[in-house]
Write the structure tokens for this entry.
Amino acid sequence: MDVLTLLQSPQSYLWAVLLGVTLHLTLLRYGEWDSSAPSLISAFFTTQLLLLGFLTAYTPSWTAVLLAVLHVSALGMSKLHLYEEVQALHRQYGDFVRLGPMELSIADPRAIQAVNSAQTPCTKGPWYNGMRPRVALQNSRDKQEHSHRRKVWDRGFGAKSLRDYEPRVVSYTTGLMNAIESQKGTPLNVTDWFNFYSFDVMGDLAFGKSFDMVKNGVKHYFMNSLKTNMTMAGYFKHVVWVAPIFRSIPILNFEHKRFWNFVNSQVDERMKMKPDKPDVFSYLLEEYEKQDPKTAQSLLNLQADAYLIVVAGSDTTAATLTTLFFHLSTEPHLLTKLREHVDPLFESNEVDAGALSRSKHLDAFINETLRLHPPVPSGVQRLTPPEGMMIGDTFVPGNTIVYVPLYTVFRDERNFKRPEEFLPERWTTNPELTVDASVFVPFSSVMVAAQFELSPKWLSKALGFDVVGARPVRIGTGQIGEVYRIELEYGVKTRAGPASVVAKMASLDADCKAFGLSSGLYQREVRFYQEVAPLMTTGPIPTVYRVERDEESGEFVILMSDNAGRVGSDISGATLEEASLAMSELGRLHGLILNHVSVEKHGWMRRTRPWAPTENMVEYWKRFKERYGDRIKPEHREIGQKFIDSFEVYHAGLDASSAPRGLVHGDYRLDNILFGDSGGMPLTLVDWQTCYWGPILHDPSYFLGLAVTPEFRREHGEGLLKIYHEALSASSPYPISIHECKAGVRMHSFTGMRQAITAASLVERTTRGDDLFLTMFERSCEHVVDTKALEVLPPPVPVPHLEPKELDEEMHPFSDHPLHNESWYFDVVDIDQQVGVWVRLGVIPNQSGSWYHALICGPHIPTVGVIDFEAPHPAKDLVVHGGEYTATHEAEVPLLKYRTTVKGKGVAFDDPAAILQGGAGRPVDVQMDLLFETDGQPYQWRRATRYEIPCKVTGTFSWDDHSFTFTKARGQRDHSWGPRDWWAADWVWTAFHLDDGTHSHLVHAKARGGDYPHLGVGYVQKEGEPLVEMNDVKAAAEMAANGLGVSTTITMAPLPLTFYVKPVGHAPLCLMAKDGRVAKFPRSWATITTNDGRKGVGWLEWNINE
């Protein structure tokens, strides 16, 4: 135990009393010691500072030490503008300034990563003990405990939770605007009003009710008292041992005790409430209620966390709003500039929170506010490890309290040019104003990788050199991944390695990470560098030092050489020198890989589905036309429409063609090419997420269509293609004629058009982005015209629906995707008995267990069955031998008859919503035997490897002394295989059966993260009539507060049908990912009424990500 912690322990009070009594009896009662007290105290502190301090080397003289420490202490007890004085001290004395006997303020930019990163060896300092015996999340000094509690908080601030809070925040915002409007023309203290606003919002989210300060215009007791308590915390920041003594003295501690009595009463009141609206406290309370037994300490921690909800969300928000509006009001041109970017987001008078959150310009204004006025200007308190540590080039002794003063660092010319000026453009159009963006961590913490520590130790192992220091700087602007340049420092054990390396990792944003995982982009790039790059010893790719990937979480790191180079401009186009080098290196690359035909055998390299669903492309094209309007030339609009009309059959032709096949980069343009300086690699090709094994002439056609101007291509295109052909022929073992090259370029002329239309819908809209996408589209259209590609574009034809093969009923080969999943699903409804059953076996070979569920439900019975998220992986016979049950699955006649059974122990829930909350249920004996006989046309999806079959169902389901028999009841079964990320998208899945014999299968899905169009697919079929595929399915759902479905309305096209769905029986699940993500999965059987008066029954599910 260190001295500071000992001084704050309960035992310290006893020792203090004993010491005081002893001194009084032996010394102090003899003589008049009080008259000498000032001299004694001065002598004590001077001796301590000069002789006993460990940090005497950090200021230039003993007088400077004494004056600095006394001055800092005095400021801490008065104006509380310590950060300004610390900045002055750093300007006078340098990067390391001593604030106390064992305290340092460190302004070296390298201290940000060394002290505040997730990989730091430092721990929280003794100041965090200030709330004891209460311990809020922020104050927890135990990293393991903090990590556990943080997961609960993450749920409260997840994407879905924030969306749930949004209506209330909008309501309070409207109230604030109305209050300000009512005082128009009179002076207004905006600091007070922003505090009223932020405290009202966070009070609602913590205590279930507002403080009503915006409504009443009067400061609430809580806000005033909180300010007093936080001021006292500031006083004690450098004399933390005084705090517990102060709180123990009657009268002096009156306000402190009164404040916490108020907080405790609010928590008690909130615990008794049953709010119909979600709030942050709900998640903390849910975790507290799970504890058995509940301890006094856990209640104290809950009270402290409620306090933290309010403080963390109100004080910093109000301060940031105040300073932002100060700059906007005193510099009107900034307000005008911000309005230009933000006003278009409110054209419908509705708040588009998603668009606001993705606005880089709004982010820039907020970032610049936080840079000049960081919420924690002096930095947070950290304690160095006992053995000490290096910070930059300086050794700091162990158990030293250290701060990184953000106010000083953010206004340092080493990090930001013109640092005292408010310049939002440094974050957008003028990045040269930011020298080192890696230091910008306004809330005093920095994370580089969630799963992998880019520590000197890890880097030493990866590189084979003695790395003693590593400084990561984020580079690039990609949204799906994080890329860092790591500047390295070496020790004396070995020779030095590269001066810097580049690390690429998964995005820190949960939604972007989910998209990267579900789309397979992460897996594809990782496997490229693991399996393909080593074959390209002379190829134009970076040197790869290490690739690591966590199978369960999907996190990865690719450590590669830092090939500094020049990136060309996609808008202005390549020069002749750039284009010649790019085509030559591309030909050489394609030829190199053609020597390694084994690459083709990698299943992940082969595309198993089209580039994008046709319905998505139709939506993308619609958006493209609406966005750019008259800027699209009529002749180009016509070409684009023909391409979209033939999209499906065009890509089918590409897949079936006999064109030369090999490694395709997929996005070969200037943005992904680094042109090296002399002496290094002449060209480096990066960003391999879209690579695949396919027609190699995709890449040269794509480059010629997008990376050069039409005039340039008409003059030099044929010569550039010859350069490509010569380089390809020189390195390829297979003869490929120039005629084949020209034919391939012609056929692939539409690929750039597809990219322009798609990208314009998927990334945030900017002026440069608009110019880029229009340029890409126009060039691609001219490329199509020049190559006469319209002559080889297949005409649009009706495409017959796909049907599965008999062999598809069996288990398929697994990929190595961590979320590879093969599932067999079954459902049935008997409306006369008012019951429904659903069954699902989900084999997840790359996880610790598979999923098995078999549930029966209805309005008059409990929800009963087997729920197992860690089932043993079955063999090919699909028999699951669970711990207390056995389940079988067998295609008795492939595509015609399928039997599934289960027998063993299950659980029963009187309230099905309890399943969503993690309830245990009561044990029951369960037995099921159901036969599914095909009653319609089997339907194979076009967009994924899965099929659906409508059925008639016969058999029994029983538990304990209850039994139900099904006779030719209506049902559905499906079979799906491939990577399936339940936490990457929200959806509504349905299988309905109308009384007139019509069967339908309809899905509405929306990927999380960006502004992606929804996916709407399915079919409607009836015996004697052709199956009609749906391409515009939309579902609008109403959910109850307990998470179960209330109603859903489904529309579709091309048939003008609407289904009005009323759930009757509920059998939900709660799906937990290994990385902590949660998806609520309510499933229900329901009755259906159509807009033309027909009725029916069926099952539906809502996958809802938190």
